[in-house]
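Hypothesis: this fold can be encoded by more than one sequence.
Test: take the structure tokens below, design a sequence, compare later.
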């Protein structure tokens, strides 16, 4: 009995999956049909300025998309996936639905464009060319190819790229062999653009909007974190360079003049055919290929947006189904069907501007996501491509300005429509199963943020240390509080708690005065923290009660921090408290920082990794947060472990390197060999004697009163300059560095 084999979905790399569809959409129909018109009206200097301004907006948007994509594995849906996972499912849906319609209508537009470019070759004796029928056949062809295989669709773009390349070679050859003239250096709007510069800019801008075609293939990529930034940025740069070369060449050739280029005659061959080597022979295949590749980009990207909307329960469930080869076949044919119905409208020239407007709202959302992610500063936002929020804000504002310039009415209507979709999705109370930047944003504003945070389900990506600190030694209190602030990077909450043993009413302690004294000392030291003074009958029971009562709404303390204490009996008491804190699903930090350790320069941070108690991810995260502070920025972070045999060295080193790469935290790994059965504590002391601070995982003894364990722990901790013991008992255990 033979088993039925199921084809594995084909995954694509950077070139075929991102660069090819993006660059072919950029080098599209506008390049062939409108560049001469732009140059004839603006002259060379203003034309180059137009290219630079338009390309700057797309380049910045590409950078923002790249930053977001390197911080997550971008699933199916491309731009929709990135926005929904950053700004939330409601805003993602408000962008995703128009994005799907844009890609669908783009398919219809490209089909009409290809049909109309073929029309001049229609035999006159056959009557008027059936433009609508030809467009419908083109849509059916593109849908059938894409529905069968994305691999086939993308591979068909390789010969198309060849045809486009040949047309460019033919153009440059014609320029070089046809004589030269001085370029026009001033604008001549009277020729065919009396509305002026911004009108010409608005007509040109759609030429640079194709760079997201590759992002739409995100779910079909082998490595989206690598392919999206490399392919997208390379496509934008390639398109910009080619544009500048083409426009410069058109301005220098003597085969045509500005008057000829500024004239638009849809019944005549493109202006390129008067310049290029062999004329129309090489230009038309490039033109047709450019239009067809754009159509393929739309029919590949649109269904994947629809599939993603289905998977997130915004669209019907059946649209998320895939074939045995991983293709969203149902969504593809639905997309093709809508595009076919749009053919019945007859003339979609006006729709072209709407498509551009909605794409620009997408660029605004991408840049806005990058701005908010950077400003909110969630611990989980660690992109490998760093983009300053001001740069992303420039892209956001630039896209908004261009939207308004193209069509103010369409701009307002598009934004209104997306706000209505957002309101509808919000009323449906859709909840994503992922964390998003809104939790970090809401935690930065007062009452309104706390209410939102209370409604929001917590997630590992939004985790930040909310630390409650206990110290029995007033002299070390400020130093410990400073360390706690280093850990939370001024993003979480630090509560400093002084405990007084006694009974309320039986003590002479003025709680309010003592709290004000601590507040003044914190202010003098420029440390941000919230002080508390509590009177408790016993230290252990009092601390546990305070921990349970601390915090409100979504800001409860998730990490309890203690200063190290002297005396084995006191260490045992600390361990008993840590055990209870762990049962309460909260983290624990025990910090040994001698009062004499007040150096302002720090060179090394060591993290000793055992991988047994699942404390490693929190240790590495806290070490990374410490490393981000000004006082520790020059310190090198070392991830260390010990193995007992030579055979374990290489596998362990590879494991640590993979962990560092996945966590996106700059660190060096050291695997130490202990094949002579040396005392592990002595070995660790020797290897970390020069480290300014050492992070260790904190296991708990089997017995609640294990004196031997406490003595061993005291010897281990006090053998370093400074030591941080970490116990991770959060529900996010093992997920904090994803």
């Amino acid at each position: 009995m033979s088993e039925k084999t199921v084809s594995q979905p084909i995954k694509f790399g950077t070139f075929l999956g991102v660069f090819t569809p993006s660059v072919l959409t950029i080098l599209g129909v506008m390049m062939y049909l409108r560049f001469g018109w732009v140059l004839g009206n603006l002259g060379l200097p203003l034309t180059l300025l137009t290219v630079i301004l338009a390309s700057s907006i797309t380049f910045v948007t590409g950078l923002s998309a790249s930053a977001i994509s390197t911080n997550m594995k971008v699933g199916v849906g491309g731009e929709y996936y990135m926005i929904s996972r950053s700004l939330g499912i409601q805003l993602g849906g408000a962008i995703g639905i128009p994005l799907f319609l844009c890609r669908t209508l783009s398919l219809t537009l490209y089909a009409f464009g290809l049909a109309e470019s073929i029309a001049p070759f229609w035999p006159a004796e056959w009557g008027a060319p059936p433009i609508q029928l030809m467009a419908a056949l083109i849509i059916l062809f593109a849908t059938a190819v894409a529905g069968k295989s994305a691999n086939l669709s993308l591979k068909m773009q390789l010969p198309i790229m060849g045809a486009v390349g040949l047309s460019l070679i033919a153009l440059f050859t014609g320029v070089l062999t046809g004589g030269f003239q001085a370029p026009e250096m001033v604008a001549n709007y009277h020729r065919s653009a009396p509305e002026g510069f911004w009108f010409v800019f608005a007509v040109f801008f759609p030429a640079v909007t194709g760079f997201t075609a590759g992002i739409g293939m995100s779910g079909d990529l082998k490595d989206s974190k690598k392919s999206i930034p490399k392919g997208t940025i390379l496509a934008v740069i390639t398109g910009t360079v080619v544009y500048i070369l083409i426009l410069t060449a058109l301005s220098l050739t003597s085969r045509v003049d500005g008057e000829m280029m500024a004239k638009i005659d849809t019944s005549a061959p493109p202006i390129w055919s008067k310049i290029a080597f062999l004329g129309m022979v090489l230009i038309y295949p490039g033109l047709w290929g450019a239009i067809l590749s754009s159509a393929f980009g739309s029919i590949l990207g649109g269904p994947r947006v629809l599939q993603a909307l289905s998977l997130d329960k915004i669209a019907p469930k059946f649209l998320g189904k895939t074939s045995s080869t991983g293709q969203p076949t149902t969504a593809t044919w639905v997309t093709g069907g809508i595009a076919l119905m749009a053919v019945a409208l007859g003339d979609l020239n006006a729709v072209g501007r709407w498509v551009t407007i909605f794409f620009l709202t997408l660029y605004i959302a991408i840049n806005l996501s990058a701005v908010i992610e950077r400003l909110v500063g969630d611990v989980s936002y660690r992109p490998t491509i760093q983009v300053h929020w001001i740069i992303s804000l420039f892209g956001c504002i630039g896209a908004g300005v261009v939207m308004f310039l193209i069509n103010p009415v369409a701009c307002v209507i598009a934004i209104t429509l997306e706000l209505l979709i957002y309101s509808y999705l919000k009323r449906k109370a859709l909840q994503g199963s992922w964390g998003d930047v809104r939790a970090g944003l809401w935690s930065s504003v007062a009452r309104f943020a706390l209410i939102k945070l209370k409604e929001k389900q917590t997630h590992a990506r939004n985790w930040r240390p909310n630390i409650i600190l206990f110290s029995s030694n007033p002299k070390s209190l400020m130093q410990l509080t400073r360390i706690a602030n280093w850990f939370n990077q001024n993003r979480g909450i630090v509560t400093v708690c002084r405990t007084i043993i006694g009974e309320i009413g039986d003590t002479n302690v003025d709680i309010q005065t003592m709290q004000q004294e601590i507040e003044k000392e914190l202010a003098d030291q420029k440390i941000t923290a919230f002080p508390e003074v509590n009177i408790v009958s016993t230290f252990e029971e009092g601390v546990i009660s305070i921990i349970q009562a601390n915090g409100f709404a979504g800001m409860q303390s998730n990490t309890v921090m203690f200063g190290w204490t002297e005396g084995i009996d006191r260490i045992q008491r600390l361990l008993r408290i840590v055990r209870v804190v762990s049962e309460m699903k909260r983290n624990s930090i025990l910090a040994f920082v001698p009062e004499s350790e007040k150096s302002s320069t720090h060179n090394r941070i060591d993290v000793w990794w055992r991988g047994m108690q699942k404390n490693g991810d929190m240790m590495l995260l806290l070490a990374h947060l410490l490393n981000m502070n000004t006082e520790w920025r020059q310190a090198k972070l070392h991830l260390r472990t010990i193995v007992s045999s030579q055979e374990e060295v290489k596998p362990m080193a590879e494991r640590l390197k993979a962990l560092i790469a996945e966590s996106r935290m700059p660190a060096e790994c050291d695997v130490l060999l202990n094949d002579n059965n040396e005392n592990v504590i002595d070995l660790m002391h020797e290897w970390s004697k020069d480290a300014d601070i050492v992070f260790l995982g904190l296991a708990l003894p089997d017995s609640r009163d294990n004196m031997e364990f406490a003595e061993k722990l005291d010897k281990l901790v006090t053998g370093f300059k400074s030591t941080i013991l970490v116990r991770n008992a959060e529900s996010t255990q093992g997920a904090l560095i994803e």
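The radius of gyration is 32 Å. The beta strands are 467-470, 494-501, 530-536, 559-563, 587-592, 604-608, 636-643, 668-673, 693-697, 723-727.
Hypothesis status: open.
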